[in-house]
Specification:
Largest sheet of chain B: 5 strands, antiparallel
Number of helices of chain A: 10
Radius of gyration of chain A: 24 Å
Strand content of chain A: 5-15%
Helix content of chain B: under 10%
Shape of chain A: globular
Structural class of chain A: alpha+beta
Number of strands of chain A: 6
Strand order of the largest sheet of chain A: 1-5-4-3-2
Largest interface: A-B, 44 and 42 residues
Distance between the termini of chain A: 49 Å
Helix content of chain A: 40-55%
Largest sheet of chain A: 5 strands, antiparallel
Order of helices and strands of chain B: EHEEEEEEEEEEEEEH
Strand content of chain B: over 45%
Oligomer: heterodimer
Radius of gyration of chain B: 22 Å
Number of helices of chain B: 2
Distance between the termini of chain B: 24 Å
Order of helices and strands of chain A: EEEEHEHEHHHHHHHH
Shape of chain B: elongated
């Protein structure tokens, strides 16, 4: 729930001169707050209570839905991405590499077909993937997935491979907030397992 | 962060492509249309990895074009507020520095660089500590936290910070190994 008088509302200009413009907002509405766009559900009583004179600011209660107010530190990344499969940089490198090879086989001039986004992503993941060997990549995911981590947390740990428990919690603050790790030892074992893979890769 | 997600899109196809190679044509058109695009909701579409399902086509009145609903899997890159990631520095100036993480640009203002690092202009402008031990210049690798995102029609810009624990220049990976 948000209760904030400083919210700036956007609605079609044709509704502006009607009796109570906020009535029109009942249901799903786009809000512009600062530089962000939010989808908002406005409750009927909130709209009815809104003063009809004020246009740019008023107080109302609305239920946030979807991806707004996102904060990866608290694992608020939206339903859609929370459920989606996350990829570590090393996994993306494997996928994009194979795709690049396929494109090379299909046409003589692969650079022509490749978008800038693809090229930049490939360069990035190659530079920042900790594990190059496909087997090592699989092992990393296996080890991390033993610990009831959310997909997003798993990948952050896999990408940044923190060395100490303190660092791991700083990188993924949500590790502490949920009661999966009763003590720091569990985290430490996990980090040790990861560094072993890197060593023997 | 990179994600593997399933998206759906309505593809319009000209009748001249109808024939035994219709599916191939649809898939190649999908790749051309979608790969490299960016939306605020899903981020950058990096690559299509597979097509799950192509639904029944619907003939458009008047034009003869047919619309097919296509479900496809793709790799997307979507930055989140609060996310910590690694990036490559691309430009340094007195306002701060720009870094790139895959397709996304991240700006780190000099207010969000630790106070003990100072800007030095010259051939390669850099932010350096007084003792010269830590140095941020073009091509440095930094670990940063995203604190804000701005979504454009075709791009996402981020604001980052390195003023926090465990953030900043990454040690030379060669030396650590």
């Amino acid at each position: 729930m948000i209760k904030d008088p400083s919210f700036l509302l956007w609605y079609p200009s044709s509704t502006r001169r009607k009796y109570n413009p906020y009535r029109r907002l009942v249901g799903s509405t786009t809000l512009i707050v600062g530089s962000g766009f939010f989808r908002c559900l406005v409750e009927p009583e909130a709209a009815a209570a809104a003063p009809s004179g004020a246009i740019s600011s008023f107080c109302f209660t609305a239920k946030m839905s979807g991806e707004e107010e996102e904060n990866a530190a608290e694992l608020k990344i939206g339903e859609e991405f929370l459920k989606a499969k996350c990829l570590m940089n090393c996994e993306v490198a494997l996928i994009l590499d194979r795709k690049y090879e396929q494109l090379q086989q299909m046409s003589e001039d692969p650079m022509n077909q490749i978008s800038q986004v693809f090229e930049k992503s490939l360069q990035y993941v190659k530079r920042f993937s900790r594990y190059k060997n496909p087997d090592a990549v699989r092992q990393v995911r296996e080890i991390l997935s033993r610990h009831q981590l959310a997909e997003f947390e798993l990948c952050v740990l896999g990408n940044l491979s923190p060395e100490t428990v303190e660092e791991a919690i700083a990188m993924v603050p949500s590790l502490k907030s949920r009661e999966r790790f009763h003590n720091d030892e569990a985290i430490e074992t996990m980090l040790n397992d990861l560094s072993l893979i890197k060593k023997f890769e | 962060m990179f994600f593997h997600i399933v998206l759906e899109r309505n593809m319009q196809l000209h009748p001249r492509h109808f024939g035994p190679r219709l599916r191939e044509k649809l898939v190649s058109k999908l790749m051309k249309d979608v790969e490299g695009t960016c939306s605020g909701r899903h981020g950058f579409v990096v690559a299509i990895t597979g097509v799950d399902n192509i639904g029944k086509g619907l003939i458009r009145d008047g034009t003869g074009f047919v619309t097919f609903p296509v479900k496809y899997q793709c790799v997307v890159f979507r930055p989140f507020k609060g996310e910590i990631l690694e990036a490559v520095v691309t430009m340094v100036n007195k306002m701060g520095f720009f870094a790139e993480a895959g397709p996304v640009q991240i700006f780190v203002s000099n207010h969000l660089i630790p106070d003990d690092m100072e800007f030095h202009s010259g051939d390669t402008p850099s932010y350096t500590t007084a003792d010269g031990a830590v140095r941020i210049q073009k091509d440095s690798e930094v670990r940063l936290k995203i604190i804000g995102t701005r979504v454009d029609a075709t791009e996402i810009f981020c604001i980052g910070t390195i003023k926090d624990d465990f953030l900043g220049v990454i040690d030379d990976p060669g030396a650590a190994a």
